[in-house]
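Today's session is about reading a structure prediction critically. Students often jump straight to the picture, but the first step is always the sequence itself: look for stretches that repeat, for charged clusters, for runs of hydrophobic residues. Only then move on to the predicted structure, which in these notes is written as discrete structure tokens rather than atom positions. Here is the chain we will use throughout the hour.
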Amino acid sequence: MALPDSLPLVPHPADVRREEGVIPLDGARISGDAVVAGQLRDALVARTGIRSQIVGEGADAEIVLSVDPAAGAAEGYVLDTLGDGIRITGADAAGLFYGTRTLLQLLQESDAGWAVPRVRIEDAPRFAYRGMMLDVARHFFGVEDVKTYIDRAADLKFNHLHLHLTDDQGWRLEIDSWPLLTERAAGSDTTGGEGGFFTKDQYREILAYAAERHVTVVPEIDLPGHTHAVGIAYPDLVEEPWLSEQSIAEQAALGIPLPVHGEYYRGAAVGHSSVRIHEERTYDFISDVLREVAELTPGPYLHIGGDECLGTPAADFAQFFERVTRIAADTGKTPIAWHEAGAVAGMAEGTIGQYWGSVEPKGSHAEEAAHFVERGGALIMSPSDRAYLDMKPTPDFPLGLVWAGIVPVRAAYEWEPTAVVPGLPAEAILGIEAPLWTETVTSIAAGDTLVFPRIAAHAETAWSPKDGAERTWDSFRTRVAGLAPAWEASGIEFSRSEEIAWA
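Below is the predicted structure for this chain, in token form.
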């Protein structure tokens, strides 16, 4: 007789059948793809201390890993422990990897040792794009920190890491054709840190690490605003800061320093910077930068910003984005832009929009987002009052911001990506992304306290069937509590939210 599903699986699989009994794990032999087998072996050691042996394909093994397109849809897998051992069959290489992540969540410790329950799981993701974003511009994180964040993402079956590489506070990627960007404009950040940047070799190292975990890196060069740092390196490319009386008053009230052209800006205000839209040299700069970033990056996407250009006239913004979306597309990549760029009638066809407005759109936000779809693109949903991980989960939380509101775990869980922008077909939604902006974050450990457990809610929204029997808040809050031992073993400094029934 099948048992009720109460396993700590997040995101919850599409279909789970559970039977009585467990399969003990004690020095299990693993056969199959050497890379995935090695990743699983290392994870088992870290989680349980069990030292597994990798054996050749076809050899006798307790854990058998294989790929068979008949196993389901793209990134799908079947995990079966109802027989004599553990079999994970991926529909493709990514699916096989995700099957091993599910196996790790199934691990149970008892007096008799480590074991996994007897189950058959058939699973595949709901959305093709499942993203996390790390802002390395406001606070710089080095290669090892980014690798740690990739591990966090991959374990929850996220498959994209958006790196916010440039902003007013710093430029974080080496560009050969414009070397002063990192020589002069990388040495500061919002949090009082020393800043920093990735050399091209370091960036390649991140890309390779991500690829081994089936994570696609999406680099962002934010344009035409959020470009104050460019003016530190090349003052002739950037306008004088645009400051309204309101913004001056607001920054004074908060004790935020005003930006000064050509000098480091360590504040957190937005909307005051812009490249010089009517100068041809600006487009030489943009073409060179986007070409170099595209040549470095194997993934299909190139994010070109477009948000919070508060001092840029609409006509100038349109002129800029009509041209720059085409420059980005000419690199062979698909451009992504924040939803404000949807106001531009003539942006390049196929450009993808990233929506960061409220879950109930205000003003023209829904119209701007819908225009990406009308131009043959799609949408990535990141509503700031649900998906922004830098929003405080409680009013008294020591880190984070509140401009989009307080976002408790339940609010992060209970929203529907296809219902935010009215009138769009479900297939217009490419997926979701949960950004971590870092104005208040100085370490991955500090970031963990904002990210976990809310990121698990977004993982389930991105992966699990919308109408699945376990796709409920009551089920989620029980299941995510069961991940606490694994998170502790991984060194994740998660917050023990009072909303979760922690064991």
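Discussion point for the tutorial: The two ends are 27 Å apart (CA to CA).
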